[in-house]
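Q: Structure tokens for this one, please.
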Amino acid sequence: MKNLHKIFSDWNKKQIAILAKHNIKVEIGYDSFWLEENDIYRQLKPYFDEWGIKETVISKFSVEEENAAKLLILLSPWANGYPMNDYDRSYIKTTYDDSNYCNTCGMGLKQKEPFRLKKEPNWGGSKKMFSLNWIFDELFVKEELYEILFKGKGINSEKVLLYKKETVIEDTIQLVLPVTEVPLNLEDYPYEVCKDCNRLRYNFINKGFFPSFKDDVGDTPIFKSKEWFGTGANARKYIFVSQELRQQLVKLKINAGYIPCQ
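A: Here is the predicted structure, written as tokens:
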């Protein structure tokens, strides 16, 4: 495993000169670069702190580490467009039961209707699975992938409609992912309690191995966490897959990302 930091800022000439001494090239103005968590990063970290630099960090895992995990987070390989008119967020009222929804933290939506997509997916090349912009805890797959991989594993499906026309998109299936009732081991992870709905939401976990579950989750090959994660007014649940399902996705050349669980 290695940690990568995305460093981004509105750079000035003095900062650029210091970065150049470490063979890092950026342009004047807004620019960003990736930096592995190594000696160079540690040498520059005091400067980043002094300059008030923004950064995000992610972990990259070896194939061996991914192969050794019993369960893994699945990160969708493709964010394909948007649900129906995302500008006024009307898809929330149409697609979800929002009676338990909180506008402040984004928790509490429960799907009641099929998704309406603004346009049909372009299933070019090896693309067979995607999520939607703004909606990262639902998966949509090409119909043939559902038939050969998910249907026989007891994963239900939902049709997907084309916005305004209300016609079924024939080659696109939404996976109906079950939600586990088994809690994660999150005692040492940061969280916040929403000031309006008083529900608990954890920060996103992007660095290191993902925490394990407190008990056996059974043999369901793909499912969601019961806990919510997010920042601001956005909240979502993480999607987990078994090692067996991951191996099948890799064999089918589904270019997803994975975070191994401890």
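A few notes: The mean pLDDT is 93. The longest strand covers residues 2-11.
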